[in-house]
């Protein structure tokens, strides 16, 4: 330093002393130690190095954090995938158990189906115009919703023999095409009865504007399918649950399970419609198959789904479009079930076949295709086809159900659309 109060750096001593106070720590005066022991000189290089080290530590910590987050994300994805696989395996196990239970229940049913040869104990003569009455059949609550008229026990003599072949069990397959194919294969495996005529069936010709409704019964051709390999066998779709209105309170509705097989648990005479002509199909016996799956429901035609929904609400009053939409959603979700009823041909009654054709010829000759008696809509009535043979018709004029009885043997009407049929015997 010079004598003029200037330091060797060219700064005044008082300014230098003032600035150095900012870079040296002042010791606590009560320690009794010199101030030089507590003061360290300011070093920019050390500060810069410390800053660089801190930056490196921060970068390293952020990298470690990102690595941990990435590993946690991978672990979460792996756990989620494993959970989905476990849930899928659990569902498959449950479906396999359910399919095994259904298969075990169904496997015993085809074994009980029988081939039957039909022989009528009396001779069938030509029909006459004489009309006789018959007592009204007893009321049956199980057939209230579909208008089915129960009959007495049939007097048709049927000789039965056991079916030796076992039908294939239908597994639980997701694709509806596979399900339909296997169901048809099961029907094709059913044996055929003897006595079916080799030549083509003769149609029952009914002129315009008369319908088979006025001759035998009415139907819609939407919910019955025939096996392509063996047209003698088929299956039909019908609701498992139906909605009805409380007769005392018209705003109160209730759901109830119905007897989906009904009288067709016994041998039943069936008719079907093809290209506007009615044919006698033979004697059929129904058995329960697997219910329709939701995927099969999705591939049904709109006409078929509407027919099933209409049948579901047949006994309900004041049905609005919103109600029909809600019922359709319940079917699509699987809350409402559609029963699949197998139709096995177990016989062919030649006397019935000849009598129906003779009745059609007689009606064509006389021009009387309908009963001239005035009957209000929806009223069951009974008209004899032939009083000598004992064939009688139990009909509902505006309904979808027909019960024809040759001496009280059950008869159903099956109507066919372009690719589908509808059975009215259930």
Automatic annotation (TrEMBL):
<dbReference type="Pfam" id="PF20411">
    <property type="entry name" value="DUF6697"/>
</dbReference>
<feature type="coiled-coil region">
    <location>
        <begin position="72"/>
        <end position="106"/>
    </location>
</feature>
<protein>
    <recommendedName>
        <fullName>DUF6697 domain-containing protein</fullName>
    </recommendedName>
</protein>
<dbReference type="InterPro" id="IPR046520">
    <property type="entry name" value="DUF6697"/>
</dbReference>
<keyword id="KW-0175">Coiled coil</keyword>
<feature type="domain" description="DUF6697">
    <location>
        <begin position="225"/>
        <end position="358"/>
    </location>
</feature>
């Amino acid at each position: 330093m010079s004598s003029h109060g200037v330091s060797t750096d060219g700064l005044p001593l008082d300014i230098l002393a003032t600035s150095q106070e900012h870079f040296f720590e002042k010791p606590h005066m009560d320690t009794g130690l010199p101030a030089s022991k507590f003061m360290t000189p300011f070093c920019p290089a050390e500060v810069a190095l410390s800053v660089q080290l801190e930056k490196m530590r921060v970068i390293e910590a952020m990298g470690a954090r990102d690595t941990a987050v990435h590993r946690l994300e991978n672990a979460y994805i792996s756990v989620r995938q494993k959970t989905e696989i476990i849930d899928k395996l659990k569902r498959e196990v449950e479906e396999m158990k359910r399919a095994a239970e259904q298969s075990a229940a169904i496997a015993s049913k085809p074994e009980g189906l029988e081939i039957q040869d039909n022989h009528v104990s009396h001779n069938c003569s030509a029909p006459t115009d004489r009309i006789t009455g018959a007592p009204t059949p007893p009321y049956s609550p199980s057939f209230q919703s579909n208008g089915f008229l129960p009959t007495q026990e049939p007097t048709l003599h049927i000789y039965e023999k056991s079916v030796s072949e076992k039908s294939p069990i239908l597994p639980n397959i997701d694709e509806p095409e596979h399900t339909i194919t296997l169901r048809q294969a099961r029907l094709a495996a059913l044996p055929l009865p003897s006595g079916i005529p080799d030549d083509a069936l003769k149609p029952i010709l009914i002129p315009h504007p008369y319908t088979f409704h006025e001759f035998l019964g009415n139907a819609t051709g939407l919910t019955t399918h025939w096996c392509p390999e063996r047209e003698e066998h088929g299956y039909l779709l019908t609701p498992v649950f139906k909605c009805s209105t409380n007769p005392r309170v018209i705003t109160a509705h209730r759901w109830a399970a119905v007897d989906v097989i009904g009288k067709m648990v016994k041998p039943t005479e069936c008719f079907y419609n093809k290209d506007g002509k009615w044919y006698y199909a033979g004697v059929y016996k129904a058995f329960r198959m697997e219910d329709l799956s939701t995927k099969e429901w999705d591939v049904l035609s709109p006409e078929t789904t509407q027919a099933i929904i209409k049948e579901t609400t047949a006994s309900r009053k004041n049905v609005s479009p919103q109600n029909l939409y809600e019922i359709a959603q319940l079917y699509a979700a699987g809350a409402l079930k559609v029963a699949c009823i197998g139709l096995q041909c177990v016989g062919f009654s030649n006397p019935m076949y000849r009598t129906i054709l003779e009745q059609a010829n007689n009606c064509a000759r006389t021009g009387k295709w309908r009963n001239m008696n005035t009957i209000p809509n929806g009223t069951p009535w009974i008209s004899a086809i032939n009083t000598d043979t004992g064939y009688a018709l139990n009909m509902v004029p505006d309904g979808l159900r027909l019960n024809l009885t040759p001496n009280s043997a059950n008869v159903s009407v099956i109507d066919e659309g372009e690719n589908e049929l509808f059975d009215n015997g259930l």
